[in-house]
Specification:
The structure is a homodimer. By secondary structure, chain A is of the alpha/beta class. In chain A, about 40% of the residues lie in helices and about 15% in strands. The first copy, chain A, has 14 helices and 17 strands. In chain A, the strands form six sheets. The first copy, chain A, has a six-stranded mixed β-sheet with strand order 10-7-13-12-14-15, sandwiched between helices. In chain A, strand 2 and strand 3 form a beta hairpin. In chain A, helix 4 crosses helix 9. The longest helix of chain A is centred in the N-terminal third of the chain and has 24 residues. The two termini of chain A are about 20 Å apart. At the A-B interface, strand 5, helix 3, strand 8, strand 10 and helix 5 of A face strand 5, helix 3, strand 8, strand 10 and helix 5 of B. Strand 10 of chain A pairs antiparallel with strand 10 of chain B.
């Protein structure tokens, strides 16, 4: 395990660690008070100034800058709120429960003067605690604050191993036996384990393409697992792909539209995360991901020219920004060349453009040809 | 079966009917040409002028106005496109395949002068054919044009019966055995059947609430099936709930935020559909749905006053529009009273506001009390 996460640890070990982190911070605060000092909590600075792109690790990471939340007359409320949110996390770990950010906000309504007036206040404090926990190798899901959005859908040669929360009995979900439906990734996946004989994970941008590959059981022939991202992947989808890839040592191939949004928003978010939320990248990004297509070269190689659309002004701006400012793109000569080629061609192509050659050209021709030539993938 | 749909027919019967409808239209066109007349196709008018709210049926329906698409010099292209899209549907039925609207657009790239220049053109023609098919009791999914968005997630006391598209073997998906995950509804559900001992379907607005009820296996105790709508439900979610409710004669209870958006967008779309797409309501709306909560009265009965937010200007406008113009609301004195009460209180409440009394108050108190008093549901 190179890139953070917690592969070989069991759920209860992680729960113990979470409680230890919370209690050690609380004990320090208590000790300060007992010895007559003003207590403080050291928190990572979350602003963009304190984010760096780690080329070796392959993702954006928080730097070493720290801020002190010291108990003063002015900070009494936010200091107390920080402690109460941490106490709420501890209770949720103990009760095997969880809350969304919005629920945490509402829980505070019974905290008297400590209550949050707006959810933006509670969100900011949760983000602070998340950043703090990340320094200890713990994700927000481990603190039991789950995202609102569920993950994408999954089908293919995969057995997800979960448990019945009431009885603790093991539950095995066979993702090759869900018909035209699929497995919907839960909001937290930390407790899942996997069994699979798949050769790779295929992460797909659009729902329609996912349904096509699922109905035609592409995953059976290609021996893979397919995951629907439905645009920029949610936290749960990213964490699921990351854990699955780490635990099963599976490569991850991305099948996305050929446009600047697909490259720099969807794919880049999956692979390296974002600078805006660097505290979470070590858990959520998938550095092992590669870009299968649609590449600018595919437009030529697969004769899609008359199924393209002109780049919009937004597309062009996004591409130029990436070339100028995106540390991930700038570190990859192949991406620089691909984006320059797209700008020069002046067009974009959706993954559905392959339907020009027939609905199942993507299954019968495109994907087999691409998979036989991994060297053509972008990094 | 009162409200459209096709309960007792098998998949292949419906496929035959679809092909018959397409071929009978084509034969008429051919007969016109052979007899030297200008061929034409009669299509329902889809504008709002031709939509009426059927109180007895409980949904918005297309009226009797028809337009003729006649072959002339000016209409040659759209006439030919209409026929080619219908031919594409026939081929997809025959091959047990499907396409999204976007894929239909791309397929046309090989149609020479018939090709669509923009997806809006192909979408309009697909909507016309959908309206035509609806007159014969056939949904767009039956024409094999599937939506892009998947359905919501499902868990609970339900076995979904699907089949392996390659072998035809029956596949049974036990939605009570998916752990913290769920069953992701596929884009078309026409071929599904069900087995269940549930007493009702609970349709839930937010993903976080769905995860809470799923993790705590609320569906086990309450003997129900829970469905995540994640905001305004998609086509697939609506059709799934409708078919499940029709086939298993299950009531549908909606658990939604207490605000005008929840009432008039989320709940109303599920129950009566929309005027803008009246050709699809007979398949997609769920007239048997009732509104469990959160009702304006719940804010008082469950002491949520200090966990509310003031109504925004948009909320107020939406509520007033509903009282003035929405035929569904205007036909229901209880809804009129509820919306007036909300306007008078001047606040809205999210379903998460119940967390004020503890994270699982919703499971231990709110839902049991509401379910014991169905008379308090709104129509």
């Amino acid at each position: 395990m190179k890139n953070g996460g917690h592969d070989d640890t069991t759920r209860s070990d992680l729960d113990k660690k979470t409680i230890n982190v919370i209690e050690s911070i609380a004990k320090q605060v208590r000790a300060d008070i007992d010895s007559g000092e003003l207590p403080n909590i050291e928190l990572p600075v979350r602003s963009l100034d304190n984010v760096k792109y780690e080329e070796a690790k392959g993702y954006f990471e928080l730097g070493s800058a720290r801020k002190l939340r010291t108990l003063t007359v002015n900070t009494a409320r936010s200091f107390a709120q920080t402690l109460r949110v941490m106490a709420t996390s501890r209770t949720m770990v103990q009760n095997d429960d969880f809350a969304t950010k919005r629920e945490v906000y509402y829980i505070s309504k019974n905290w008297g003067d400590c209550r949050f007036d707006e959810q933006t206040e509670s969100d900011a404090i949760i983000d602070d605690i998340e950043a703090l926990a990340s320094m200890h190798g713990l994700s927000r899901e481990q603190l039991r604050v789950y995202p609102e959005s569920h993950g994408g859908s999954v089908a293919g040669r995969l057995i997800v191993v979960d448990r019945n929360p009431a009885t603790g009995d093991v539950i095995e979900i066979d993702c090759s036996n869900l018909g035209s439906g699929a497995y919907s990734i839960p909001r937290s996946v930390e407790h899942l384990s996997f069994r699979t004989d798949a050769r790779f994970v295929l992460a797909i941008e659009t729902g329609g393409m996912f349904q096509r590959l699922n109905n035609h059981r592409f995953w059976e022939i290609a021996r893979c697992i397919i995951v629907e991202m439905a645009g920029v992947p949610t936290r749960a989808t990213r964490r699921f792909i990351r854990l699955l890839s780490d635990k099963q040592k599976l490569p991850v191939y991305c099948f996305v539209d050929c446009d600047p949004y697909g490259f720099t928003n969807i794919y880049r978010t999956l692979k390296v995360g974002s600078g805006n939320a660097a505290q979470i990248n070590r858990f959520l990004c998938v550095p092992q991901a590669r870009f299968l297509g649609v590449t600018p070269r595919d437009i030529v190689d697969f004769g899609l020219q008359d199924a393209t659309h002109p780049l919009t002004a937004t597309d062009i701006k996004r591409a130029q920004d990436a070339l100028r400012n995106d540390p991930f793109i700038r570190a990859q000569p192949e991406w620089i060349a691909a984006i320059k080629q797209l700008l020069q061609m002046g067009v974009r192509a959706e993954q559905q453009a392959l339907a020009k050659w027939g609905l199942n050209y993507v299954i019968d021709d495109y994907l087999p040809r691409k998979l036989a030539d991994e060297g053509s993938f972008l990094p």
